[in-house]
Design a protein that fits this description.
alpha/beta; two-stranded antiparallel sheet; 8 strands; globular
Amino acid sequence: MASDDAMPSLRADGTRESVLGAPPHGQHVAQLYTEQDSLVRAVVEFAGAGLRRNEAVILVATIAHRQAVVRRLEADGFALADLSRRGQLTMLDASQTLSELLVGSLPDRERFQTVIGGMVKAARLAGYQQLRAFGEWVNLLRRTNLDAVLQIEEMWNHLVAAERIALLCGYSIDAFDAHAYQGLLQRVLAAHSYLVPVEDYARLDHAVKSAYAEVFGSARDAGFLRRAFLAHYARPVVMPDGQAAIFAAQEFVPEAVEPLLQRARRHYEHPAPGG
């Protein structure tokens, strides 16, 4: 999705902190999560960093997530009422605005431009040149209407590129679920430029290395194979090495992905002492 001049090398890991805290403008980040609190932490990190940088922030979230984000931002010292009055912070209910966006079962481009484009214009008129946004529409739809999700992502991408917005989307997808690698995640990646699959990249990398050793043989042989896979796998988006090693296995040895993910999950959720 990203242009070559705006995006760091696709071979790069990036870091979760840099992707959420200082995402390149004109880029689109996919955040995976299984626990609600994990998503809230990511949104707070993303929104809080933008507010500190004097950027305008647009949050399109469910009521529960919005309330949790508000509590944490206020606990961090942000005067949200003042920020809203100045036009720096705009919050919308995802479910309500989604119903306004759809015509039948599909999103309408003019309605999208009215809802989101109008907020972007208002932020510009309020004096904010840099914007970042979080959107939750796609997760509300993804289990029932993936075509609508991809159309919304396309609309977001046009706006992201035209207005140089940094966009974060939340998807309740388990990065260790083998079924997610049978087309769903690949379609999600096609609409994004960055993937944040888990909170702890170092723990993910260690878990995947351990899983490779268990699935593919000795640690030395598995390490060689993992490095070879990473060297030959063309990452479609910026993602941590541990995640790229999973996608590489899906591409080169798909029959090994399910046992690989089962072991990686165990090592990630129950890391060995000192691991």
